[in-house]
């Protein structure tokens, strides 16, 4: 039971988002850390994100039965009642949003609520089933964690918040499409109109390129506006180049499966290393 409750929250995704929220907080705090505020920020944002993933599992339970990657999840296997899962998700959502509004600040609460709404209503219930734009538009919710962390300290949405938003927003499509390319037939069978399903793998590879390319001005501007130091700039530019060259290589790759797997792994490590560098090389006040 406990294992299923944890699995419903998609813990790997939560870990990445928690780390992103920590990075945003650290950039804004500039090493002058209010640890109690940090703890409440991480609790509130994590509960809110967990709620969104649990409700997503509830809503997708029938379609999940059609995919090898998801058919062994808690609901498709019938290990919990759908009504119990929905209640579990909603309780966490109310708790998370309440923590953000009352123990962090109102702007973080509104950002958490916006991220939850986009993920559940716009992405899960609407676009995921109807449009190839689901990945891009859904990326709004995925980009919220570092912004929530940042605004927990600043109490306002300024240039730093927008740059953190851009970093996560631009990272997501190429990351997810790398996975979608490998699972394209599963998504087709389940009826998801993802880009590689509707437009084809070649078009998807091409559409990844501008997202990865736009990461360059994002990380450069973070340094230019003095949110991070020179070491962050060097590391993030090198990693962006590595990811861009590999993404470009997808156009001529003979083994698409191998290329997509590597591109996915690059994307995961890119995010982790960039945020570690961001925290370590945040400029002091």
Present the secondary structure layout.
Elements: H1 2-7, H2 11-29, H3 35-59, H4 61-64, H5 82-104, H6 106-130, H7 134-142, H8 144-154, H9 159-182, H10 184-190, H11 195-198, H12 201-213, H13 215-224, H14 230-249, H15 256-280
Helix pairs in contact: 2-3, 2-8, 2-15, 3-5, 3-6, 3-8, 5-6, 6-7, 6-8, 7-9, 8-9, 9-12, 9-13, 9-15, 12-14, 13-14, 14-15
Describe the structure.
By secondary structure, this protein is mainly α. It has one domain (2-280): Farnesyl Diphosphate Synthase (Orthogonal Bundle), CATH 1.10.600. It is 79% helix and 0% strand. It has 15 helices and no strands. It has helices spanning 2-7, 11-29, 35-59, 61-64, 82-104, 106-130, 134-142, 144-154, 159-182, 184-190, 195-198, 201-213, 215-224, 230-249, 256-280. Helix 3 runs antiparallel to helix 5 (82-104), helix 6 (106-130) packs antiparallel against helix 8 and helix 9 runs antiparallel to helix 12 (201-213). It is globular, with a radius of gyration of 19 Å.
